[in-house]
Amino acid sequence: MNDTQLTQRALAPSAKTHVDAQALRLATYNIHGAIGTDGVRSAERIAAVIGELDADVVALQEVPLGGSFAPNALPILRETTGMEAIAGPTLDTPERRYGNAILSRLPIRATRALDLSFGRREARGALDVDVDTEHASGVAGALRVVATHLGLSARERRAQIRALIAAFDTPRMPVILMGDINEWFVWGHALRMLVTHFRAAPAPRTFPSRFPVFALDRIWMHPASRLLDVHVHRSMLARVASDHLPLVARIAREHHV
Questions:
Q1: Is the pLDDT of residue 221 over 60?
Q2: What is the DSSP letter of 95?
Q3: Could you report the per-residue pLDDT of 116-134, keeping only the tens digit for each?
Q4: Which residues form the Endonuclease/exonuclease/phosphatase domain (predicted)?
Q5: Could you tell me which residues come within 8 angstroms of residue 105 by beta carbon, excluding any fewer than 6 positions away?
Q6: Left, alpha or beta for 34 (phi > 0: left; psi -120 to 50: alpha)?
Q7: pTM for this structure?
Q8: Fewer CB atoms inside 10 A, N or C side of the chain?
């Protein structure tokens, strides 16, 4: 399948595309620089996978955002999916601009960047946005979405999670945290810290994409009662487009006490 066919596939209406009166769909996807397991770089192929997800909001990690090292993938993802696109670079040099991004069907009302860099290790961060859910439900409301990609060192992850939790200063606003947490151990300290704040959530395996063994990609919500389900998107295209599989969650549109 060539890039033109992939673009047409992403734009074509999906058989499952519909307005769900009960739930919003959110997804997180580490796109590995848009380089697939076959070694081919293709933002169009990533866009086609995102089209399969039929999500209202998608958090992306390892997104090439321009520079001489790799072309900016975000314009292709935005134009192909028709979603609003927000860049959250963690590395920003003339040679390479790289980091997180959020795609949204819903209006984005505010955007914040959180610096999660730790010592001399690779620069890390989180993209923190407020999404207007009235557009989807007809009921006034907002959802805070935090997209992140944590570091490879356990000490680094602990410091980053403390910084993230400290930033959740909007208790009346529902919060979704999603991204590549890079925690390889089920009972790692980083996960225990997050579970304490968000409560446990399903953690299907997403890495490596061809034969998933590790649950590196996660989605948490507060209040946890609004998180309906979490599943891995396992299409044939997704298994090749990146070394991670996308993780998809459904959340209730409204919280009923």
A1: yes
A2: S
A3: 998 888 889 999 999 998 7
A4: 27-244
A5: 55, 56, 57, 82, 83, 84, 136
A6: left
A7: 0.88
A8: C
Who contacts 74 (Cβ-Cβ below 8 Å, separation ≥6)?
63, 65, 85, 87, 101
Q: How many residues does the chain have?
A: 257
State the Cα–Cα distance between residues 201 and 192, nearest whole angstrom: 12
Taken in order of first residue, the domains within the chain and their CATH numbers are: 23-252 (3.60.10.10)
8 A C-beta contact, residue 30 and residue 244: yes
Give CA angle at 216 (136, 79), nearest 5°: 40
CA distance 257 to 246: 31
Q: Centre a 10 Å sphere on the Cβ of residue 105 and count the other Cβ atoms it contains.
A: 18
For 59, 180, 219, the CA distances from 245, given in Å and listed in that order, are: 13, 11, 13
Tell whether the model's pLDDT for residue 76 goes beyond 90: yes
ω before 107 within 30° of 0 (cis)?
no
Lowest-pLDDT range, 35-44, 74-83, 218-227? Answer: 218-227
List, in order, residues 6 or more apart from 244 with CB less than 8 Å away: 29, 30, 31, 32, 180, 206, 207, 208, 209, 216, 217
DSSP per residue over 192-235, as a string? HHHHHHH--------BSSSS--B--EEEEEESGGGEEEEEE---
pLDDT classification of 22: cutoffs 50, 70, 90: confident
